[in-house]
Every structure is written in C-alpha cells, then in structure tokens.
Design goal:
With about 90 residues, the protein is an all-beta fold. Helices cover about 0% and strands about 40% of the residues. The chain has strands at about 1-5, 20-25, 30-35, 40, 50-55, 60, 65, 70-75. The strands form two sheets. Strands 2, 3, 5, 6 and 7 form a five-stranded antiparallel β-sheet that branches. A three-stranded mixed β-sheet has the order 4-1-8, with no helix packed on it. The protein is elongated. The termini are far apart.
C-alpha cells in the first residue's frame, strides 16, 4: 500500500527522506523506509489496518491507521538551541 509523507509546516511531500515507522497491531515492530521522489513510501499489505507512527529527526508523529492513501504528517526541521553564552567571547579587564 502507498502512504504519503508530508511536512507539517509546508504541506509538501518529504522526498528521499529516511524514516522509521513504529507499528502497533498483530505484526508489531519497527520498519525503516525511504520516501521516493514523490514523498511516498510502500508498506506491505500485511500491515493494513495497523496503527503506525513515524519517527523522524528525533520526533515522533501521530498514530494513524495504515491504509491505502494514508497521509503521515511530520515536522521536517528540528529546533536546536545554541550552547554557551553570548558573553563567552568577550574579554574581561580588571
């Protein structure tokens, strides 16, 4: 079955993105997949009706039912913080 993976911010398909799916149901487990040029992944029909959740860039998406034409929404960009202080490079004179 074909499942489309889109970015939540831009609503555009995530192309050539490697992601991991967590699957809940009779055939529970993890599957690592890469999206194609259209942002679509191919998932085996044995997972039809199972609950799937995408893990991408350290973030976990929402649980959705795995059916033909399902759309997974993921956050493509991760938020990072800067380490240290802006005052770090200033010289101090006594």
């Amino acid at each position: 079955m074909k499942i489309t993976v889109v970015d939540t911010a831009t609503k555009r398909p995530l192309v050539n993105a490697k992601l991991q799916l967590q699957i809940r149901g009779k055939e529970s487990g993890f599957v690592t997949l890469t999206t194609d040029q259209s942002g679509i992944i191919q998932l085996d029909d044995k997972y039809r009706g199972h609950q799937i959740c995408a893990l991408f860039n350290g973030a976990q998406g929402a649980w959705v039912a795995a059916n033909e034409g399902t759309t997974l929404s993921l956050t493509a960009k991760t938020t990072t913080t800067t380490q240290g202080s802006k005052e770090k490079d200033k010289e101090t004179w006594k």
